[in-house]
Design the sequence.
C-alpha cells in the first residue's frame, strides 16, 4: 500500500463523517468557512514544519511508496493528513456534542 492510498482512505473517511455531520446537524456556511480556514492554517503549518523535520533528517520515506511530487522536501501525500484531521475532528465534535434545547438556543 502506498502512502497516497493510505492517506486517501483516511481522507475519504473524514469526508464521509463531515458530510454526515453537516446533514444531521445542518451545519451552515459559517461552520464550513471556519473549518476551511482551520484546514488552510494546518496546511501552512504542515508545509513549514514538515520541511524543517525532513531537512533535519528526523525521518525518511520509502521512495518506492511515494508519488514523487513534493512541496519543498515534503511529499504531497503528507498534506492529506491535516485535511483529514481538519475535517474529521470538528465533524466528530458536532456529532457528539448535544443538540441545544429550545431554551438554550435563544
Sequence:
Amino acid at each position: 500500500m502506498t502512502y497516497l492510498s493510505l492517506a486517501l482512505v483516511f481522507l475519504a473517511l473524514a469526508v464521509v463523517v463531515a458530510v454526515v455531520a453537516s446533514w444531521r446537524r445542518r451545519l451552515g456556511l459559517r461552520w464550513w468557512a471556519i473549518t476551511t480556514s482551520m484546514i488552510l492554517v494546518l496546511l501552512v503549518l504542515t508545509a513549514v514544519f514538515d520541511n524543517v523535520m525532513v531537512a533535519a533528517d528526523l525521518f525518511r520515506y520509502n521512495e518506492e511508496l511515494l508519488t514523487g511530487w513534493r512541496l519543498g522536501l515534503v511529499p504531497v501525500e503528507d498534506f492529506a493528513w491535516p485535511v483529514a484531521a481538519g475535517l474529521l475532528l470538528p465533524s466528530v465534535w458536532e456529532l457528539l456534542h448535544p443538540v441545544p434545547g429550545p431554551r438554550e438556543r435563544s
Observations:
- The radius of gyration is 17 Å.
- The chain has four helices and two strands.
- The longest strand covers residues 70-71.
